[in-house]
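Holo model, flavin-adenine dinucleotide. Inputs:
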Amino acid sequence: PFDVLVVGGGPAGSASAIYAARKGIRTGIVAERFGGQVLDTLAIENFISVSHTEGPKLAAALESHVDGYGVDVMKAQRVEALVPAAEPGGLIELRLAGGASLLARSVILSTGARWRTMSVPGEDAYRNKGVAFCPHCDGPLFKGKRVAVIGGGNSGVEAAIDLAGIVAHVTLFEFDPKLRADGVLQAKLQSLPNVDVVVSAQTTEVHGDGSRVTGLSYLDRTTGQTRRVELDGIFVQIGLVPNTEWLKGTLALSPRGEIEVDAKGQTSLPGVFAAGDATTVPYKQIIIAMGEGAKAALSAFDYLIRVPAA
Ligand code: FAD
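Output:
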């Protein structure tokens, strides 16, 4: 069996595997898609000390760093279930989609998350070409331009406030007749001169010129008319979904499905730790996921040296 088995090969899982392997313990990593969300990213300009890189380049660097430590890497494998240890210090079982099982004394869950999409024509085609999901990441790319934010919940309104300080103009679109964000955020939003809010609006299409976004169409749900707005970017803020469906009923998840962790990355199950976008830790970013991954590995090591093997 493994001493530490990491599920997920994104920034969090890679950092966990490296920190665990550096302790000289038997470490494995199972990942459906090594690199994770980083693979879907173009420019990365907030990974501190690297002023500019690209997603696929960072993903390749993660993988080669992990490989350098003799970690047992199992790629293109999906974990479908976790079976907790039967007794304190016992082995935890991970069941793979193909039917095989892996055993480990400790497990680090770092399965990440995925952005909820609008599922309208043009959204996929213009992803990273004007359609964006992360204002902290891509906001500065739209300096001086006109953008839309889709979604009037807390994350949409926060994004609009954030972007208003960078871009020329923000239009926020909300499906419901009113915004759902906290009152203080709505008040802040209303005080900004370069933000418009459109409610009862259902986005129906993303338009582009073949290489970049040029606008969007939406259905005005009060009049039934379709309208078109010209803009350079669209930030979709209708939810980040953690990849934790398979863990429901096994360990404690928040109402949003995030794995509940304490300050050391410990979950509700002994010997099981978690890190990155799949957890309750706020602000979903590469540098944060890596830090949390390192922390979870150190916590797993701490567990291994304290809890005798059953
Ligand atoms: P992920 O990167 O989501 O990795 C999850 C891993 O788990 C993957 O390997 C996946 O295949 C695997 N996995 C999931 N379920 C299973 C399973 N059941 N069995 C086995 N494996 C599984 N952040 C920044 O800091 N800067 C940026 O510029 C930036 N730009 C972004 C642009 C885009 C388009 C997107 C989508 C995100 C961006 N982010 C950016 C956010 C950043 O990518 C995430 O915060 C970060 O990747 C989270 O790392 P993670 O390891 O927690 O999860």
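DSSP finds six helices and 19 strands in the chain. The longest helix spans residues 286-306.
Archived with the compound record.
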